[in-house]
TrEMBL record:
UniProt KW keywords: Signal
Highest taxon above the source species: Bacteria
Protein name: Uncharacterized protein
UniProt source species: Dyella nitratireducens
Residues spanning the signal sequence: 1-25
Length: 202
């Protein structure tokens, strides 16, 4: 299942589990704050000290042109901060889909679509490292499928096992399809891949 299609039920669960009140555009949070209109939650992870990392996307009024967002919630249900992440200028939309925490940083997986037409679009992956105290972006790293030089479209499905910390590295498990296979209607199944990135990225 493509990342761009999943998690309607997860989004509903997240909204039911976190009775937040409104936050303004600057991300100021009061206890009991609610996610702004247009924000969809793709995943939420309980980390420590009662904090939760919520990742997803904010779309326009038509539910299109997603832009990745990250919220850090505290133990009271308020937001410590939120971050709107940039996507490359030559891409169409993107969403934050997974979150892993270290004592000083959050690591967020972003999946970016290059075009609005799904049959022509590639989904590309990158990891964004954010300061856990402030939400400031510390580093960004493209995630390339190993051993593949041809054009491809990749995705990482929901679930913590597909994006996790292990022995000082981020382990990313996903699948990809070659664009040539899509163009030729070969019917080949997507190929699985695993990538490891050092958490000490800068």
């Amino acid at each position: 299942m493509k990342a761009s299609r999943y998690w309607g039920s997860l989004m509903l669960c997240a909204l039911l589990l976190f009775p937040f009140a409104n936050v303004d555009a600057a991300g100021d949070a009061a206890a009991g704050a609610k996610l702004p209109s247009g924000v969809s939650v793709y995943a939420h992870e309980t980390i420590d000290n009662g904090q939760k990392c919520l990742v997803g996307a904010k779309s326009d009024q038509d539910g299109l042109n997603e832009r990745p967002v990250v919220y850090l919630a505290d133990a009271t249900g308020g937001f410590t901060w939120h971050a709107s992440l940039k996507i490359p200028a030559d891409t169409y939309q993107g969403r934050a889909t997974h979150c892993v925490a270290s004592p000083a940083a959050l690591f967020v997986l972003v999946q970016v679509d290059t075009q609005s037409e799904q049959s022509l679009s590639q989904t590309l992956l990158k990891v964004v490292k954010l300061d856990r105290k402030t939400g400031a972006v510390l580093a960004t790293k493209d995630v390339a499928v190993p051993g593949v030089s041809a054009a491809y479209s990749a995705s990482v499905d929901e679930g913590g096992d597909n994006f996790k910390a292990e022995n000082g590295s981020l382990v990313i498990k996903g699948s990809y399809e070659l664009m040539s296979d899509r163009d030729n209607n070969t019917g080949n199944d997507p190929t699985n891949f695993t990538v490891k990135l050092p958490m000490a990225m800068n």
